[in-house]
Design a protein that fits this description.
heterodimer; A: alpha/beta; Rossmann fold; Arc Repressor Mutant, subunit A; 2 domains; five-stranded parallel beta sheet; disordered N terminus; B: mainly alpha; 0% strand; elongated
């Protein structure tokens, strides 16, 4: 349970009612009775609530209504909550609270992959979820979110996670979506060794990534971004474990 | 999908609804009461089908 505690983000207790006013919240869960209960609680609190029961509906609702916050179940029919999270992040960087019945799964997604803002493990108290929603929105309004949104710079490399662009010494470099995702994850954990499993988990769902091909993706990525790919200085191999990104300066 | 995962999902349905009844947020309609009963009986079924609780593994395949 230590991991859970470590990853648990700060949760406020005394939500100001005016924060709730007219905020749009999208709730995504494939259990209709749970979805309805959660949506009713949020409506009662004055939120404008949108509901979706699967991945495609979630993405559609998101694009159409641009909610201020998304509550997202990780296990969804259609495509997974993780995929939904990826797609909505491409549109807009809104706060996301994950729902999951598996702590293990939440660890991976919140801790590493796309930076959800908070999570709630099932079964939960709907009132607690409402409190989290208010707390996350308040943090977002104060600009206290750790954002996956801005341009990131590591040594000679800059990564724009919105435009999906990579520049090396100011010059644009083309990378594949899988390479970008690997770079995105590595660059958001500079100095930290990420295991092969962690990196694979982040790029799974691409359909073309297997354990052995991770090395090839890294090699190709180095060829694009390292001034001297034979002597990488940004993406380092940690033998027997995985890879880490460092600022060579 | 582990057994524990399924159990938690069914419990989530039951708890969210019963809390809603208690808080006066949800009307305890026959449909909702049926949903709660169904969720709880699913938990019972899952527990009965796996008498060996060593298989109630929270962690997915690693």
């Amino acid at each position: 349970m230590h991991d859970t505690e470590r990853l648990r983000l700060v949760v406020g207790t005394a939500p100001a009612p005016e924060v709730a006013a007219a905020r749009k919240v999208l709730v995504v869960d494939d259990e209709p009775e749970l979805l309805e209960a959660l949506c009713t609680y949020l409506r009662d609190e004055g939120f404008a609530v949108l509901c979706a029961g699967d991945g495609p509906a979630a993405v559609e609702q998101f694009g159409e209504h641009l909610p201020d916050l998304v509550i997202l179940d990780i296990n969804l029919p259609g495509f997974s909550g993780t995929e939904v999270l990826r797609r909505i992040r491409l549109v807009r960087d809104v706060p996301v609270i994950l729902l999951s019945a598996r702590v293990h799964e939440v660890d991976r997604v919140v801790g590493l992959e796309l930076g959800a803002d908070d999570y709630v493990v099932k079964p939960f108290s709907p009132r607690e979820v409402v409190a989290r929603v208010k707390s996350v929105l308040r943090r977002a309004e104060r600009g206290e979110r750790r954002s996956s949104w801005k341009e990131r710079r590591v040594g000679a490399i800059s990564i724009d996670t919105v435009a999906h662009e990579v520049h090396v010494n100011g010059k644009p470099v083309t990378v594949t979506p899988t390479q970008f995702r690997i770079l995105d994850v590595l660059s958001s954990h500079v100095g930290q060794t990420l295991t092969r499993d962690q990196l694979l988990a982040c790029v799974s769902g691409e359909g073309d990534v297997f354990d052995r091909t991770l090395d090839r993706h890294i090699a190709n990525l180095r060829a694009r971004i390292e001034p001297d790919p034979a002597n990488p200085r940004h993406i380092l191999t940690v033998f027997g474990v995985g890879y880490k990104m460092v600022d060579p300066a | 999908m582990t057994v524990l995962h399924d159990i938690r999902n069914h419990l989530a349905v039951a708890i969210a609804n019963v809390e809603g009844f208690r808080d006066g947020v949800l009307e305890p309609s026959p449909k909702r009461l049926d949903a709660v009963l169904h969720a709880l009986s699913q938990v019972d079924t899952l527990l009965s089908s796996r008498p060996d609780n060593r298989t109630l593994d929270d962690r997915g395949p690693t």
